Amino acid sequence: MPASDFKARVLAITRMIPAGRVATYGDIAGWAGKPLAHRAVGTIMRTAGVAGVPYHRVVAAGGALGGYGGSEALKGHLLRLEGLTVVGTRIRSFAEVRWNGPPVTRRARTKPRVRPS
Fold first, then answer.
1. Residue 112 lies inside a defined structural domain of this protein
2. What would the 3-class secondary structure string for 50-114 be?
3. Residue 77 is part of a domain; what is its CATH number?
4. Rounded distance, CA 24 to CA 22, Å?
5. What pLDDT shows up at residue 37?
6. I need a labelling partner for 86 at 20 to 30 A (CA). Which of 23, 30, 56, 111 fits?
7. Residue 57 near residue 91, CB atoms below 8 Å
8. What's the domain count of the chain?
């Protein structure tokens, strides 16, 4: 998958995160098809600059805020405005506000299933 496809998938998934919920860089990477690309997701979050994407809803593993253009304070403030409790640089009750991800769609089969006789 070309890098631009991955970036587009990452941004599309990030747009789906509901207000008051968060996902980790690793979550986004997995849902976008590259489960080990959490650092690439962080780079996309930092450099994409696409309007209308809730970058602040993507956090580090375990509920740590992670970076936000160099301002964890701003990221924490935005999350508080959405009703999350942020203490220091961590989200309280992280497991309860962690988003479960985009809806799962079933892929059409490309080959018919062969059943043994």
1. no
2. CCCCCHHHEECHHHECCCCCCCHHHHHHHHHHCCCCEECCEECCHHHHECCCCCCCCCCCCCCCC
3. 1.10.10.10
4. 7
5. 96
6. 30
7. no
8. 1
Please give the residue that has the higher pLDDT: either 50 or 115: 50
Identify the pLDDT of residue 104. Answer: 77
- 33 domain-assigned: yes
Q: Is residue 117 part of a domain?
A: no
* Per-residue confidence (pLDDT) for residue 4, from 0 to 100: 85
DSSP string, 30-61: HHTT-TT-HHHHHHHHHH---TT--GGGEE-G
Residues in the chain, how many? 117
C-alpha 10/C-alpha 21 separation (Å) is 16
